[in-house]
């Protein structure tokens, strides 16, 4: 993959190419940003670029890989012997005691089908690990990684290790990975990719160079059509917010009990969609509808709900949702987590109703 194949993130790409030209290639980098911000495609294009034999020049500066040399061809196929992937995984009906390498052919297939940009949920579905299973980067992955690093590079100037969804690194291997990031072999570059940098332990974050990816305008984001699950989740979100706005405690308790019947991955997918619902409402509130990409039903709800979402409370909504995702991911009680989050929402809505009433009376 070449940089020219990527629509968007031009500032990040420019910074990466200029740093590489200046010889400032950090041995551990953390690419972070929201879903859909093209972190993985940029990581592949960057790996290809710094190992290209004849880079494309512009005004005397290298700006992209050639896409034609033997190194570029191998990187573009995700088959270079010095390119290594680690990503969340778990056993399925055919694989026991899994690690990333067991799923590498499927990983390449999903990558190509989605032009390099796909969600964690898409990957979970592709692995077919079952509804109640979570995926992590496990000890077997760590052992494989350490084994790779004990070997010499095959042919590349830089051996590339890409850890996708690095927030899914198992707590049991964080220490071993930390030591590896501190003292990597010369010519090894780690690229950690995450949507939630706060969920990566601080000692690992502090040993990486942070590369921030901003959200892309809706018209150039890679996007998938709304699935049946997306539509169902929207309906659930609408009900949830109605219960919270009305402080309908019996309905909140019933809703929370229903949510515990879903797998943790489905719950996290619903919560991630809830973040997007809040974002749409905020955009509508501040007359930025041109950035809203949604179904007619979703837009209609956003128009009605927008008056209660504003710059003063959006951080609270996001914090509650992100905290809930964090604890769901760590096997927290789903029913209790939704009840707690709902009661916090009730307080926010009560404050907004009071503020709106006071404003109308003045």
Structure characteristics:
alpha/beta; Rossmann fold; Zinc Finger, Delta Prime, domain 3; 2 domains; two-stranded antiparallel ribbon; 7 strands; 49% helix; globular
- CATH class category of the largest domain: Alpha Beta
Beta-strand segment tally: 7
- Compute the number of structural domains: 2
CATH third-tier fold name of the largest domain: Rossmann fold
User: How can the largest sheet be summarized?
Assistant: 5 strands, parallel
Run of helices and strands:
HEHEEHEHHHEHEHEHHHHHH
Mean pLDDT: 89
CATH architecture level-2 label of the largest domain: 3-Layer(aba) Sandwich
| Helical run tally | 14
SS-derived structural category: alpha/beta
Structural shape: globular
Uncertain ranges: 218-224
State which percent range the strand residues make up.
5-15%
How far is the N terminus from the C terminus? 59 Å
How is the largest sheet built, in terms of strand order?
Answer: 4-5-6-1-7
Instruction: Give Rg in angstroms.
Output: 22 Å
CATH H-level superfamily of the largest domain:
P-loop containing nucleotide triphosphate hydrolases
Helical fraction equals 40-55%
């Amino acid at each position: 993959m070449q940089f020219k194949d990527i629509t968007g993130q031009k500032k990040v790409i420019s910074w990466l190419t200029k740093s590489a030209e200046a010889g400032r290639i950090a041995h551990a980098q953390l690419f972070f940003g929201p879903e859909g911000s093209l972190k993985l495609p940029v990581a592949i294009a960057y790996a290809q670029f710094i190992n290209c034999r004849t880079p494309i020049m512009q005004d005397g500066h290298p700006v992209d890989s050639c896409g034609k040399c033997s190194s570029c061809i191998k990187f573009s196929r995700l088959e270079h012997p010095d390119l290594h992937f680690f990503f969340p995984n778990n056993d399925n009906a055919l694989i026991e005691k899994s690690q990333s390498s067991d799923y590498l052919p499927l990983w390449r297939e999903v990558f190509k089908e989605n032009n390099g940009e796909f969600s964690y949920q898409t990957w979970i579905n592709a692995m077919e690990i079952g509804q109640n299973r979570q995926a992590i980067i496990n000890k077997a992955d760590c052992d494989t990684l350490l084994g790779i690093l004990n070997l010499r590079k095959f042919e590349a100037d830089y051996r590339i290790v890409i850890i996708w969804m690095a927030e899914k690194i198992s707590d049991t291997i964080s220490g071993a990975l930390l030591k590896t990031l501190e003292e990597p072999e010369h010519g090894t570059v780690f690229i950690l990719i995450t949507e939630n940098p706060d969920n990566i332990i601080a000692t690992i974050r502090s040993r990486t160079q942070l590369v921030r990816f901003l959200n892309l305008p809706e018209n150039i984001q890679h996007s998938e059509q709304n699935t049946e699950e997306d539509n169902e989740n929207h309906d659930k979100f609408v009900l949830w917010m109605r219960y919270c706005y009305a402080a309908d405690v019996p309905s909140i308790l019933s809703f929370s009990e229903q949510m515990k019947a879903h797998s943790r991955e489905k719950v996290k997918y619903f919560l991630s969609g809830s973040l997007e619902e809040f974002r749409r409402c905020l955009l509508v509130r501040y007359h930025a509808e041109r950035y809203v990409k949604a179904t007619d039903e979703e837009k209609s709800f956003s128009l009605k709900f927008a008056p209660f979402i504003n710059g003063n409370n959006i951080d609270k909504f996001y914090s509650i949702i992100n905290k809930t995702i964090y604890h769901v991911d760590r096997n927290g009680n789903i029913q209790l987590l939704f009840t707690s989050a709902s009661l916090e929402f009730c307080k926010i809505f009560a404050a907004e109703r009071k503020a709106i009433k006071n404003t109308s009376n003045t």
